Amino acid sequence: MSEQGKGSASASTAAPAPGSDTYKGWLFKWTNYLKGYQRRWFVLSNGLLSYYRTQAEMAHTCRGTINLATAHIDTEDACNIVLSSGGRTYHLKASTEVERQRWVTALELAKAKAIRMMNDQSDDSGDEEPTSQSDRSELQGTLKILISKLDDLSTCNDLIAKHGAALQRSLSELEGLKVPLEGGEKIKAVNERATLFRITSNAMINACRDFLDLAETHSRRWQRALQYEREQRTHLEETIEQLAKQHNSLERAWREAPTLVSSPPSVPTNNQGSERVRKEEASDEDEDTEYFDAMEDSPAFITVTASESTQHRRSQSNLSGASGGQASDWNQDDSMSPSCNDVSGKELQPRRQRRTHIPDKPNYSLNLWSIMKNCIGKELSKIPMPVNFNEPLSMLQRLTEDLEYHELLDKAARCDSSLEQMCLVAAFSISSYSTTVHRTAKPFNPLLGETYELDRLEEFGYRSLCEQVSHHPPAAAHHVISQRGWTLWQEITIASKFRGKYLSIMPLGAIHLQFHSSGNHYVWRKVTSTVHNIIVGKLWIDQSGDIEILNHRTKETCQLKFSPYSYFSRDVPRKVTGVVADSGGQAHYILSGTWDDKIESAKIIQSSRGGSGSEGKQKTVYQTLSPKLLWKKYPLPENAENMYYFSALALTLNEPEDGVALTDSRMRPDQKLMEEGRWDEANSEKQRLEEKQRAARRRREAEAADALDEGREYEGYQPLWFHQRRDSLTGETNFVYKGGYWETKERQDWSMCPDIY
């Protein structure tokens, strides 16, 4: 108890002091029925009450904090204090009633100050930085008011002193008169009280004068500190802005510099050829083929581009059978072998003119505090997130955007070589991330039963259909069939983890691609997307992780590595590297580039073991032909920065279409209102749709409960256009297209569609 007394003593001296913001001391906190009240060290500072197990924990571990601005303070008995805010309640007990009263006083003062500061912040939200001149004028005005009040008190004190002296003289005269003994005693008592009254009034005036002096001293100190902090803030903002500009300039210079020479990016030339060294983090300790920076003494594979005079000779000697075709196939053309380069779907002119712009994004400010304060004490599922965080597309439409570069699959369908086909499939899997580089807004979460169709049969030969097949967990099924020789299907479930400064988005589920003529069946999964600067700063997105693409018919593989962004790395940002290998593990092609710009492929004509690195692993040296361009990102449309950075395809996804299903995302009212710039109406409509979906879920749960009580079997919700089947290749159970949608569209009979809007 000596520690408690010591803590309480220090707290009691801190709390009554004028201007003090901190109160510390020991209190007993209710934990549970087993342990009861436990002794904890409490710290009251800046309107927040925090507690720790010991004083030493203040340096590293806070056990809990409650904001007094929104807290209710109550006292149960002589020693107890109850604090409640939202869904959190602290039951506290002081050692004595006096100590309890000190804490209650300190808490009430801190609460009043916190509320006052919060009101001041909301009042000053439109003018965050008043000029120092106005601050000075305000302080001087306050001091003048204090001085005038002190003058009034001095006048009152003079009058009290004058009348008090007269009263004492009268009382002295009364004492001189001959009065009974009892009357004399009463007169003496009155005289003593008058003296005490005069002393008290003098003390009051002296305290006021001391307060004024202290206020003058501190106001000058606060003014200097405030001016210094503002100068520091301005300097810091200028420094950050300058660093951001320098970073952007350096990034542009780094990416544009390699184009000044005739070699591919990062390919220094010499007499024998050129070397390209790639950095890759080791994922397994026994992996021999890895990428590392050339400046580091680390294991790596090195690609050496053969000179023109030696390409044909070497291709006919020890490496002529590397890819099952002529080594010079890719050296005769800017892309791939002639069988893969007949006609591209992109060369055909569309029969319908699609829209090329949408209304500009409104410049609405977002008050994050107004959203967060409405979330306190509510269930996470019932928090209405405004459309300010969204873009006017649903997740189903974002999934459809994977088809932006569908011509890569059209070209792959015409390839005779499965390894060349694998290169194009890898480029297609990478291209789906190119639209995310500037797209930091989240798409609308689809409602259960929501669908989206993209019919490009006449223009590009394919039809795409998506349906939201599950809400908890959220899952979408996608099916695409092309008249140009391929079918793609996938079921994607999004898992996310908030890690403080960034949000990790992990798509779960396999993507299947099958080519009709060859029967080649490719399967791969998506990498993790990371949204940085969730709390503070400008949002930006990065992709990181590994993709393995497997051809189940030939067992050929492609290993892709998405390197995470690092400020200290000398590599180009958003880098992707990969190796295409046959069923025996022999590498045939090297892929390199970035997921937001382009991907190149180089055919391997020779491989050998190089020297060992610092960790004792051998480097694999690949000699390749000159790299050929597989894929390059289309430029964004004009004014894209004001249209949510939508690509040319994304701009058309919400365009009205005749005859689509009643559940199509184009029909979703909140999404349409947001696209038109009517965000307030969109927020109201979004809340209505979400509540309607919750009501439908409650009805299904009630039906399931009734069926259980009656011993009946309850089927539950079943999607319209997809059904669950076990995949023979992956062994997973997922939703696949069961047919019927396009036939129903031809009949225009949507009577079976649920009413979700």
UniProtKB/TrEMBL annotation:
Residues 226-253 form a coiled coil. One of its GO terms (cellular component) is cytosol. It is a peripheral membrane protein. Keywords: Coiled coil, Lipid transport, Lipid-binding, Membrane, Phosphoprotein, Transport. CDD domains: PH_OSBP_ORP4. Residues 20-112 form the PH domain. Residues 676-694 have a biased composition (Basic and acidic residues). SMART domains: PH. Residues 121-130, 282-296 have a biased composition (Acidic residues). PANTHER family: OXYSTEROL-BINDING PROTEIN 2, OXYSTEROL-BINDING PROTEIN-RELATED. This is Oxysterol-binding protein. It comes from Nothobranchius kadleci. The gene is OSBP2.
